[in-house]
Amino acid sequence: MENRITLLRQGRLQPGQGLVFGTHRPHPVERIHFDIDQYVAAYRVGRKPDGSPYRYHIRTYGCQMNEHDTEVMAGLLEAMGYEATDAVEEADFILFNTCAVRENAEDKVFGEIGRLRPLKMQNPQLLLGLCGCMAQEQGVQRLVREKFPWVDLVFGTHNIHRLPELLTRARESQETVMEVWDRAAMTIEDMPKVRKDRVRAWVNIQYGCNKFCTYCIVPYTRGAERSRLPEDVVREVEALAAEGYREVTLLGQNVNDYGIDIGVTFADLLRRINRVPGIERIRFTTSNPWNFTDDLIAAIAECEHVVEHIHLPVQSGNSQILKRMNRTHTREFYLALVDKIRRAIPGVSLTTDIIVGFPGETEAQFQDTLSLVREVEFDNAFTFIYSPRENTPAANFPDDVPLEEKKDRLRRLNELQAEISLRRNQQLAGRTVEVLVEGESKTNRHVFAGRTRTNKLVLFQGEKRFVGQLLPVKVTEAQTWLLKGELVREEVAVS
Ligand code: 5AD
Ligand code: SF4
């Protein structure tokens, strides 16, 4: 009888079908429990003829979501028998996990793929792959076909779990294997992961975005919002705690919309995760000012493990620009929300994303952004020049602002934010902060790095055994992007 694996290998089984284990819930978004052992068994590569292992190298661009997808793909590849390598020359498979949010990230990837051509010519066994948000763009698929035919494999954000099969097909095929699903109506549980860090872990809670900000490509590359079930998220966090992880970062494009599709709330998810023993810090990103409810603010304030840091992208300080961005919040709404958050969560640190040079942005409208930044006093801001993205509405908006002017606005904004960041850091000088120790500095032995609950980087003299501990550190020097400090007591972990 033909089994599932045979059907899968022959491409006669619909992707995802036959991988369902455990309970199947009646829900429009299909929940699939991935049985890695069964699935990957068919694609284990073994050793190369010379006895050495197959090696992979993944280059990751863009956001934390992508970083975490890379951890999943590393998990799939290692289950196939591949081993990681940092050296591209040693790799049998080089994969670009790409970002499509701005054009310069795309240009970098194509530049890198171009530079790898000689390596590919020298070693025909080497496979090159492209995945992530760029792969979802039709223009990119066309470009790969026409200009980069030495790319062996292209797959999208919705079919990452199919990597073992696609890679196997690419090894056997004369042509570029391309499989990009244009939408996803499922979430997949129990994917294997090779996590980069031993102290802090990323946990997806939601995929996709329904917001359709007019400049943004993400709703097209990541599809509609889908939430994981709270019990699946909590189970993953419990497993992480059992492995010794101390911090989780909950990931989604709009975490505060988490659960709308399944009748639960993000606030309640935070309360549940807050009860998982062993997890000392709970972070989340990204939030949207819209639907940042009073109950959510209350949950952040009351849950002792949820940190006092909110990344709350504003994008612009001018309500007309915000309207043309389809951001659903105004300047006044944002300022009122910040006020409410600051009153409920003392000491909260706020960071943001800002786009300058949106099509038609006037100097006066840009001044509104500067004044909002002055008024809010963000701890940090990620600032970008608007980059037109194919097939997004804003790409067709008339734009009469010269690039030089946009660059100048970015410079002025960055100067202002640097002043504010320094001032806010200086407020911590002489104070003792709780630091979760992440690891030793790569360049300076005995210098260790960690973060405060408010996500500020702290450097201090330490020892390897401190990694993973919460320690009190007295801030001795405040710089714009980091703090320097001294350990107060090494043996007592604070909470
Ligand atoms: N151009 C410039 N910046 C963009 N972002 C998203 N799309 C664009 C674009 N087309 C920025 C937004 C978002 C962050 C992740 O990237 O500020 O919050
Ligand atoms: Fe893009 Fe807006 Fe969705 Fe954020 S909320 S991913 S900026 S469309």
TrEMBL record:
Q: Any idea which positions bind [4Fe-4S] cluster 1?
A: C63, C99, C133
> What is its subcellular localisation?
Cytoplasm
* Gene Ontology terms, MF aspect: 4 iron, 4 sulfur cluster binding; metal ion binding; tRNA-2-methylthio-N(6)-dimethylallyladenosine(37) synthase activity
Q: Does the keyword Glycoprotein apply?
A: no
State the reactions this protein catalyses: N(6)-dimethylallyladenosine(37) in tRNA + (sulfur carrier)-SH + AH2 + 2 S-adenosyl-L-methionine = 2-methylsulfanyl-N(6)-dimethylallyladenosine(37) in tRNA + (sulfur carrier)-H + 5'-deoxyadenosine + L-methionine + A + S-adenosyl-L-homocysteine + 2 H(+)
Q: Which InterPro entries match?
A: Elp3/MiaA/NifB-like_rSAM (IPR006638), Methylthiotransferase (IPR005839), Methylthiotransferase_CS (IPR020612), Methylthiotransferase_N (IPR013848), Methylthiotransferase_N_sf (IPR038135), MiaB_methiolase (IPR006463), rSAM (IPR007197), rSAM_horseshoe (IPR023404)
Gene3D superfamilies in the cross-refs: Methylthiotransferase, N-terminal domain, tm_1862 like domain
Pfam families named in the record: Radical_SAM, TRAM, UPF0004
Q: Which residues form the MTTase N-terminal domain?
A: 54-172
Task: Write down the EC number.
Answer: 2.8.4.3
What does the note under cofactor report?
Answer: Binds 2 [4Fe-4S] clusters. One cluster is coordinated with 3 cysteines and an exchangeable S-adenosyl-L-methionine.
Q: Which residues form the TRAM domain?
A: 426-489
Main subcellular location: cytoplasm
**Catalytic class of the enzyme:** transferase
**Name of the protein described by the UniProt record:** tRNA-2-methylthio-N(6)-dimethylallyladenosine synthase
Organism lineage reads as: Bacteria, Bacillati, Bacillota, Bacilli, Bacillales
